[in-house]
Amino acid sequence: MFNSGGSGYVLNQAALDILADNIVKNPQCQPHLRGFFEDVMVARCLKRIAGLVPYDTRDARGRERFLPFTPASHLAYRRNSNDWYTKYSVDLKEGLDCCSEYSISFHYVKGSLMNGIDTLLYRC
To answer: Which among 106, 117, 42 has a CA at the least distance from the CA of 68?
Structure first.
């Protein structure tokens, strides 16, 4: 199980304190590395330092709540064995089953569109 960081992070205070105390100065967190994979590095740091592992944030039907792409991209996505999303997803859902009706966040979505999605899903 791995939760991609692009759509955001949810950490309790204890995990945030551990991360803040270690991410820059602890060599186990590899602070010298740079790249687009900060979510992997955050997860690795928390596991190495405190044994913390990602929580399964999917809904009761196994649909994602924190989504690494736009809603349209998720609706159109099809499994590809060479793609990172397929490789790192557990029981990946496609099409209309891709996304939880209780989705929390989408990556690559600006605030105005997110507000529109919220209105359509929860206020109509």
So the answer is: 106
